[in-house]
Amino acid sequence: MGYLWLKAIHVAAAVTWIGGMLAMELVVMMVPAGPHRRAVGELPMLDVVRRWDRWVTSPAMLVVWGLGITMAVEAGWLSSPWLRIKLTIVVLLSVLHGMLSGTLRRMAGDPGRASPALLRHAAPLTVAAVVLIAVLAVAKPF
Amino acid sequence: MSVSLKSAWTQSDRSEQRGQLRRMRWVSLLEGTTLIVLVFVAVPLKHMFGYPAATAIVGPIHGAAFLLYVWMLSQTISAGDWAKREIVRMIAAAFIPFGAFVNERALKRKEDAMAVTV
Predict the structure, then answer these.
(1) 0.80 exceeded by the pTM?
(2) Rounded Cα gap, residues A138 and B87, in angstroms
(3) In sequence order, what DSSP letters do the residues of B61-108 get, joined into one string?
(4) Beta-carbon contacts below 8 Å between A and B
(5) What is the pLDDT of residues A82-137, one digit of tens each?
(6) Is B72 an interface residue toward A (CB < 8 Å)?
(7) Which residues pair with B2 in a beta bridge?
(8) Burial state string for B10-48 with b = 16 or more CB within 10 A and e = fewer than 16
(9) Which of A38, A97, A109 sits opposite B10 (nearest CB)?
């Protein structure tokens, strides 16, 4: 498969992954942080986002990793500073995604459990990470 | 209007967490195995026998396995009750050859303990 095809699928998967993460972050922000009685519609909302994560967001992330690593190896970019910084951001985004998945699972099982404070501010962090990644991947400044 | 469904979800949540711990064990073994192949096979092949292709192949495979490990670990930790000491050990094991195999046993014990409490 040609580089441009790999890149197109990689970008489409990245958009899907980040879109799914933002949805998860908004849901975490919407559900009260501490012990509470469930509002009507809370469980179905958690269920929909978790199912979307399982069948769409997480597979999209795996595609991003797979194609990203493939392109980096084929192009010989693994030693480039811009890619190393980008990879570090991707690892952090993956950890954030894992925290969101785990937290949503816990929220679905137990409304009394508080979500980590970091996740309540995760949406702007995610957007900032995406901007950095876009600059690094497109401009390749160093 | 609000409703509490906590009790109805507890058992299915525990069974889901057991499944997560089981998957985490497999990913831990995968990450540990690729690290051992990288450190004890690919790196010596590159530096002692002049085969740089060995690390060029195994390196990215281990990179993908490491990503999968940190993603699954953050998911598993966020979903369950983990002591800080356990979290530090799980992270450190990803960087130490054979550490993953010690972790796998710890994860199995946690999974078994959860099965007993269901």
Answers:
(1) yes
(2) 36
(3) HHHHHHHHHHHHHHHHHHHS---HHHHHHHHHHTTSTTHHHHHHHHHH
(4) 92
(5) 999 999 999 999 999 999 999 998 888 877 777 788 888 899 999 999 999 999 99
(6) yes
(7) A39
(8) eeebbeebbebbeebbebbbbbbebbebbeeebeebbee
(9) A109
DSSP string, chain A: --HHHHHHHHHHHHHHHHHHHHHHHHHHHHS-SSS-PPBTTHHHHHHHHHHHIIIIIHHHHHHHHHHHHHHHHHHT-TT-HHHHHHHHHHHHHHHHHHHHHHHHHHHHH-TTSPPPGGGGGHHHHHHHHHHHHHHHHHH---
CA distance A128 to chain B (A): 20
User: Phi/psi of residue B51, each to 5°?
Assistant: -115, 80
Per-residue pLDDT of chain B (118 residues; tens, 9 = 90+): 344 444 444 677 777 788 889 999 999 999 999 999 999 999 999 999 988 889 999 999 999 999 999 999 999 999 888 889 989 999 998 888 888 888 888 888 888 887 766 5
In this complex, the residue of B14, B64, B73 whose CB is nearest that of residue A69 is: B64
Q: Which residue of A has its CA nearest to B67?
A: A91
Q: Distance between CA A137 and CA A107 in Å, rounded? A: 35
Enter the tokens of residue B24.
């985490």
Contact B71 A38 (CB under 8 A): no
Q: Is B11 on the interface with A (CB under 8 A)?
A: no
For residue B21, give the amino acid letter: L
Q: Cα separation of B70 and A102, whole Å?
A: 13
Measured between CB atoms, does B13 come within 8 Å of chain A? yes
ipTM of the complex: 0.89
